Amino acid sequence: MDNKTSPSLLTLSVELIFRILDNLHESTILFSMRNVCAQLNTTTDAYRRYQ
Question: What is the superkingdom listed in this entry's lineage (predicted)?
């Protein structure tokens, strides 16, 4: 059996996630990415459009 990890948004670097967020409307980020998991909460909190 092969123990490869499946691709996930969480395996991307923070810089790539920020690039993706640059192309989303703020309400989409808030309603679709916040409160999914602790790692995405931390990433979206650090995103410059919210600071």
Answer: Eukaryota
Q: In angstroms, rounded to a whole number, what is the distance separating the alpha carbons of residues 3 and 38?
A: 25
- Domain membership flag for residue 17: yes
In a domain, 6, yes or no: no
Exposed / middle / buried, residue 40 (Cβ in 10 Å: 0-12, 13-18, 19+):
middle
pLDDT digits (tens, 9 = 90+) for 8-50: 888 999 999 999 999 999 889 889 888 889 999 999 989 877 6
Residue numbers of the domain that contains 19: 13-50
- How many domains is the chain partitioned into structurally? 1
CA-based diameter of the chain, in Å?
Answer: 45
